[in-house]
Amino acid sequence: MIDIEKIKTLLPHRYPFLLVDRVEELDEHKYIKAYKNVTNSEPFFLGHFPNRSVMPGVLILEALAQASGVLGFVSMNKTPEEGSMYYFVGADKLRFKNPVIPGDKLTLESTKISEKAGIWKFDCKATVGDKFICSAIVLCADRPK
Length: 145
Prior knowledge:
Layout: H1 4-10, E1 22-27, E2 31-37, H2 57-76, E3 84-96, E4 105-116, E5 119-128, E6 131-144
Antiparallel strand pairs: 1-2, 2-4, 3-6, 4-5, 5-6
């Protein structure tokens, strides 16, 4: 398990854009399972949507990319402080099925597919309990800071 303080050493993001609260499972070279507790006080709920709070899909995708970034940094045994940045560069086969609302525990799973020339590819899935939320193939690039 990795707590929020360790996550902050592995990702350069901070509130309100840090979207991974805890890592529950980690195979440092292949798989990560993390989560984001979605609260009613998230700033994006002010405008998305005023009468029906729904987490924006682009932020669910960002949360999956951040979980993949944690896996990538752990796999490389590097941190952003050591001069490396992990950029989200694309998504393929992106599908959304259900909304995420305040009170949900958004589970983020990412499995490394490949790494070539600093481009990492991950098979990602987001769920809330047994409810499927989103899936995507996420691409990230490891670049000097």
